[in-house]
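dude i think i finally got it to work??
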Amino acid sequence: MQPGTPPTVSPFLRTAAAYAWRLLVVGLLVYGLFTVLGRFHEIGVAVFLGLVITALLRPVADLAARVLPRSAAVALTLLGGIALVLGVFALVGEAVAGEWTGLVREFKDGVGRIEHWLERPPFRLDPDALSGVQEKIGQFLSSHRSALLSEAVSGAGQLVAVLTALALGLFSAVFFIHSGDRQWAWFQEQLPASVRDRVGIGGRAAWSTFTGYTHGIVLVAAVNAVLVGLALWILGVPLAVPLALLEFLAAFVPLIGSPIALAIAAVVALAAKGPLIAGIVIALIVVIGQIEGHLLHPLVMSWAVRLHPLVVAISVTAGSIAAGVVGAVVAVPLVSVVWSVRTALRDARG
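look at this
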């Protein structure tokens, strides 16, 4: 290299550096947004829930409005959605109540089977180390009764907060579904004329991405729940319906939600049916993970914005650090919306 000549950088290093700073910016953006939203998380959760309900039910309300007045169509659509959700929870409650007696008996037998299994090769655990587990659990509960009571009271307070956010979300959804387009037009009119077009472009891109992602993730969750429910029912694992519902809810957290839900199903299968059925359920985790990762999620991202899996992982992690489970659920659609707005504005300038 001649004196005074600037050092050359390999193309690989340039590419790696370009991707690295973009990923860092995405991660910092997600963390910053959720840090701000974390201070007003009840309102943020309620508005987000209202937008999700709107994305799901607005097409149904528009269809019903062709034969009914707009207000009646909105009311009928919301009441039908609420009835559907309550019906699902009633079905789950009935399934748990109907299987409870047999489930308790199977779990008692299953704990004994697990203890004998751990005493045999390859684990060879000391039987004395496994004896008296129920007694130790009872002693723990007795000695920590006050702490558990305070946790229960705290949980009741959190339940009130959840119900409040749910009520506010439904209240917001009523107005979003009924006249969301007029509300958005009014908001644009309050802005300076020089930025109205850009805000309109960004808003249309954001809503299109959000609705696409919402419809897609609900489809992924429903397919996962049906596959899990059928597999557990065929294998004779108890609580197949509640575990399928758990899988449906967990699928809203990309990458990590479904494996956690299926791991819980594997524990239930181990206690109730033994290691063989539990091993089949673990194999089911792998199969459903492949279907979700290579078929369903690419379909979802094609409806919204195709994000790199590393960006999804960073977004979920940053969201969970900043706002817990809610942050993990909201992170990916938020990043998708931000990226789609950025792309739409860039294309409009070009």
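The chain has eleven helices and no strands.
im so relieved honestly
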